[in-house]
Structures are given as structure tokens and as C-alpha cells.
Design brief:
With about 55 residues, this protein is an all-alpha fold. About 40% of the residues lie in helices and about 0% in strands. The two termini are about 15 Å apart.
Length: about 55
């Protein structure tokens, strides 16, 4: 299991759209790669949260 946190340090009005677009690009790449490499086994789930994060 891998958990990633990304903070966009640039103030903009499209940060939610940018996060969704990036997640779709990642998912499409992984699906494409799985079709090319038959033995590549991975399950991918992406969740998007907007707001404060506490980690540690």
C-alpha cells in the first residue's frame, strides 16, 4: 500500500480540476501499461481530499 500527499503551493482556482485531471492521467497510464505488459499486476485506487491534512 502506498499513500501520497501532494500540496500545490501555487494559489489558483483550478486546483481541484488539476488534481482530478492528474489522477485520470495516472489511471489511464497504468491501464495502458497493464495491457502492454501481461505480467504487470497492480490495483490502483485514487482518492482526492481537499482541505487540511494531518499526517504522522
Amino acid at each position: 500500500m502506498l499513500t501520497c500527499v501532494w500540496r500545490n503551493s501555487c494559489k489558483n482556482n483550478t486546483h481541484a480540476f488539476d488534481a482530478i485531471y492528474a489522477s485520470r492521467e495516472i489511471m489511464e497510464f497504468i491501464e495502458s501499461y497493464k495491457k502492454k505488459v501481461q505480467d504487470f499486476k497492480i490495483e490502483l485506487r485514487i482518492g482526492i481530499h481537499s482541505g487540511p491534512v494531518v499526517a504522522g
